[in-house]
Write a structure and sequence with these properties.
Blueprint (H helix, E strand, L loop, with lengths): L1 E5 L10 H15 L3 E7 L10 E7 L2 E7 L9 E2 L12 H10 L3 E4 L7 H9 L3 E5 L13 E2 L2 E2 L16 E2 L1 H6 L5 H11 L21 H14 L4 E4 L2 H10 L6 E4 L11 E5 L6 E5 L8 H14 L4 E5 L10 E5 L3 H8 L4 E4 L9 H7 L4 E5 L13 E2 L7 H6 L2 E5 L2 H14 L3
Parallel strand pairs: 1-2, 1-6, 2-4, 5-10, 6-7, 7-11, 11-12, 14-15, 14-17, 15-16, 17-18, 18-19
Antiparallel strand pairs: 3-4, 8-9, 13-20
Helix pairs in contact: 1-12
């Protein structure tokens, strides 16, 4: 089978769960004998205005880099929506599709993608799969979360009418696409290490009900792209619920399949044993939407009643200087294994409706217990007694004494399910 993926690209230019998952999937498909090509939004060429493809091979994956893609809101929000729905000549996409002749196109994001690409794929009768890694497309913000406010639960205010004041100028977003950007980013981080401070800012409450015409047009633009999709792979029941809440009239085929990772320690049956909790950790970016500041508030209260427990945070370069909290910083797969041996319990208090959260699977695969917010898609694979809606309601004594066996799906099993998804498109 010939599979054409559209994803964000390769590390170090692109990072995060979407990037890791898409590359793992492509490499697995290549190892199984499929032909794979990745299209990704690449660099900006200010000397040539129109988009074009640059071909090559990287990390064993053949690619077609879309130079001069539409802007990527990776480091900020959208401020000028007209820049994100510009049209281009379909010929470059016609040439790509007719030369590559893919059996299926797997879309991992709409960022940077011209609508003409999907329109031409439909005209060529190529089936399209879309994986819901985030909410970009039904929201101008991938997490649908802004200034402490979750717009998924908000029936009154539309995030499309409220994001403009939080937007970044397009030129600032374009800098992220420059070939020298990863080097600049690394240099800045080396010279200036930021500090993660306790978030004491009040939640924004002055939201607007007035329609923002340009953003509503952008909303329609992405909807027209999503209408080209044949089947949606929801990576959790959480993402399925959110997409169907905001797009109730779509006639897609759908499949809900929890995702996996090549970083998992063990698959199959894994024992979560009864064990005294002497150490608790938060893992992830030190950001509000991930629940980092909620974790610090929890530590402040819980530590006063349990002074012998150790607390850790890990997953970010920002420094944390808080008494009783050990900051382990960024980690790789090797250091993760070393750190997780120090930890009895991980808490993931995500504040947004996180579509999955692979770190939960990775922690569980080591036999370490992890408690997740029931807003997280990972709640599909985490037992009910390890989920919470409010950290104040967590029964730590019960969790200490509880023992169970859970089943961790292997990457191979997951990727086999995705292959069956492709085959189902022809039936």
């Amino acid at each position: 089978m010939k599979i054409l993926h559209y994803a964000l690209g390769f590390p170090p230019e692109r990072t995060g769960g979407l990037v890791k998952y898409s590359l793992d999937l492509m490499n697995e498909q290549i190892s199984q004998g499929h032909e794979v090509v990745m299209v990704f939004p690449g660099r900006v060429n200010f000397l040539k205005r129109e988009p074009y493809f640059k071909f090559g091979k990287r990390q064993n994956i053949p690619y077609a880099e879309l130079v001069n893609s539409l802007p990527l809101p990776l480091i900020g929000n959208i401020k000028n929506p007209k820049d994100f729905m510009k049209h281009t000549d379909s010929k470059i996409f016609i040439n790509l599709l007719e030369s590559e002749k893919p059996d299926v196109i797997h879309i991992h994001t709409l960022m940077g993608l011209y609508g003409e690409f999907l329109e031409e794929a439909k005209k060529h009768n190529i089936k399209i799969v879309f994986t819901t890694h985030d909410y970009f497309g039904i929201s101008p913000h991938p997490k649908m979360y802004l200034a402490g406010h979750d717009f998924v639960d908000d029936k009154k205010y539309d995030i499309w009418n409220n994001i403009r004041p939080y937007g970044s100028k397009t030129i600032k977003l374009r800098i992220n696409q420059l070939s020298i950007y990863p080097s600049l980013r690394a240099l800045v981080k080396k010279l200036k290490k930021s500090s993660a401070l306790m978030n004491d800012l009040p939640e924004q409450t002055g939201w607007s009900t007035e329609s923002d015409f340009d953003f509503q047009e952008l909303k329609k633009y992405y909807l027209s792209m999503l209408k080209c999709v044949d089947i949606v792979h929801f990576n959790s029941s959480v993402s399925k619920k959110v997409y169907e809440q905001f797009l109730p009239h779509m006639t897609w085929k759908t499949a809900t399949i929890s995702i996996s990772s090549n970083n998992i320690e063990r698959s199959g049956k894994v024992l979560l044993s009864n064990k005294k909790i002497d150490s608790i950790a938060y893992i992830g970016p030190y950001t509000e939407e991930k629940g980092f500041f909620e974790f610090l508030k929890f530590v402040k209260v819980f530590e006063s009643e349990n002074p012998n427990i150790s607390f850790f945070v890990m997953g970010d370069n920002s420094s944390v200087d808080i008494e009783k909290v050990t900051d382990l910083g960024r980690y790789n797969q090797g250091s993760f294994k070393k750190y997780i041996n120090k930890i009895d319990l991980v808490i993931l208090p995500s504040q947004w409706h996180e579509t999955f959260g692979l770190i939960a699977t990775e922690v569980l695969s080591t036999g370490t217990k992890v408690i997740v917010s029931n807003k997280m898609g990972a709640s599909d694979i985490v037992p009910n007694w390890l989920q919470f809606d409010d950290m104040c309601n967590i029964n730590f004594e019960y969790i200490e004494n509880k023992e169970t066996i859970i089943n961790i799906i292997s990457p191979g099993e997951h990727f086999e399910k995705i292959s069956k998804l492709y085959v189902s498109l022809s039936s």
